[in-house]
Design goal:
416 residues; alpha+beta; 5-stranded antiparallel beta sheet; 4-stranded parallel beta sheet; 14 helices; globular
Length: 416
């Protein structure tokens, strides 16, 4: 199949790796890609958020399936333009992508569909935000309403910090002040063709920068899959109470959700609650879910894109576990230092079960350099979490990036 993948991060690298693993002879192009992706498949300097340019490229190159990785092209309506020209797309249109693009929209959809979630108040002014902050009390949860690259959420016991966060994001739009929900968090991906959903394996990510969940929120510093501590029937309950009601509500509103529904969930003492939805594969969870996928990914993506998920069996996964740890640049997430050389990848990749998904790299004058905050996702698979952690951290120690930082406690709680 001729496949175009849009995006430039570790998530897209993981998608490409899974497609190549099928050994089906796919012709894969990535736009714009990165240094690591370019070593595996052709990349092109194409703006993935420009619907016209993407569609023209797809038509000119007989692309059979477009896989949209990040949220920005979805919110920009790239999928809509492609579908208008008859091209199969894995990714929702602009109307359905508002599930991620606007937290206010997502809350309304959940309310309409009866999906369990926390209470929230939308604030358009700082005065409104302060009233809600004081009403809910500490710990305070303040979220930017729109896209914020994983940095729009603050959970804090500091009232002044909560107000400062609200003030900052109010300069760019509205904010949501929410009740604090306590419990274990779970990321569950579900493939959707607008009517049917099929679940992938649950994962858990680590959003805080430093060990023991200290430091600021980030786009994600690591993840692991599966989750041996999940209660029996968890996935089925999410399908019945969260995913299907949401997909059906969107269909009723003439905004069919075709693509990957990311359910950010929390297990509270009152049951499962939705923290957030995303409209695409999550990063870094994709890096631990797809390496365990046995069912060919291309068939799943194409079935979802063409409305053919109904009657398909649930995707199968290996018994191995997977752990990923993100190597980030010095200064991330606020002011990452870029342009520094990365060395030692060959030594890391020589460790059994280890792979590396590039997030922000480029080749310059023959050297691999860091071009952003989250640079690499180092992934290890193994029969158990103890061995997977051993492999991933040995690999990280072999990689040298001046000022590089990573958490040392990813999956520690399940490796005991």
């Amino acid at each position: 199949m001729r496949i175009l993948v849009l995006g430039s991060g570790a998530r897209e690298h993981a998608i490409v790796t899974a497609l190549l693993r099928e050994q089906a002879g796919h012709d894969i192009t990535v736009a714009p890609g990165n240094g690591g992706i370019a070593a595996d498949v052709p990349v092109i300097a194409l703006d993935p958020t420009n619907p016209t340019l993407v569609t023209e490229f797809a038509l000119d190159n007989d692309i059979e399936l477009v896989v949209i990785g990040p949220e920005a092209p979805l919110v920009a309506g790239v999928a809509d333009k492609l579908r208008q020209r008859g091209i199969a797309v894995f990714g929702p249109g602009k109307a359905a992508a508002a599930l991620e693009g606007s937290k206010t929209f997502a809350k309304r959809i959940m309310d309409e569909a009866g999906v369990p979630t926390g209470r929230a108040v939308r604030a358009a002014t700082l005065e409104e935000a302060v009233v809600a902050i004081d009403e809910f009390g500490a710990p305070y949860v303040v979220k930017a309403d729109g896209l914020a690259a994983g940095k729009g959420v603050l959970v804090t016991a500091d009232r002044e910090a909560a107000m400062a966060h609200a003030s900052y994001w109010l300069s760019q739009g509205s904010v949501l002040v929410e009740e604090f929900l306590e419990g274990q968090e779970v990321s569950l991906f579900l493939l959707s063709d607008g009517h049917t959903v099929l679940p992938l394996s649950p994962a858990q990510d680590y959003k805080r920068l430093a060990d023991d969940d200290e430091g600021p929120n980030t786009g994600g510093m690591g993840a692991y899959s599966p989750l041996p501590w999940l209660p029996s029937g968890f996935v089925d309950e999410v399908i019945d109470t969260v995913a299907l009601p949401t997909v059906r509500q969107l269909a009723e509103e003439q905004a069919p959700f075709i693509g990957l529904l990311y359910c950010g969930l929390i297990l509270t003492d009152k049951g499962i609650r939705v923290i957030e939805f995303n409209a695409r594969f999550g990063d870094p969870e994709t890096q631990v879910v797809l390496p365990r996928l046995v069912t060919p990914l291309s068939g799943l993506l194409f079935a979802a894109a063409t409305g053919e998920l109904g009657g398909q069996p649930r995707p199968e996964f290996s018994d191995d576990v997977a752990v990923t740890v993100v190597l980030a640049s010095e200064g991330y997430p606020d002011t990452p230092v870029t342009g520094r050389e990365i060395v030692g990848l060959d030594t890391a990749l020589a460790i059994h079960g280890v792979s590396v998904a590039h997030a922000a790299t480029a080749v310059s004058a023959g050297r691999l350099i860091a071009t952003g905050g989250r640079v690499l996702s180092v992934v290890a698979t193994a029969p158990d979490f103890t061995e997977a952690r051993s492999r991933v951290y040995r690999a990280l120690e072999a990689i040298d990036l001046e000022g590089g930082q990573f958490r040392t406690d990813i999956a520690a709680r399940v490796a005991l």
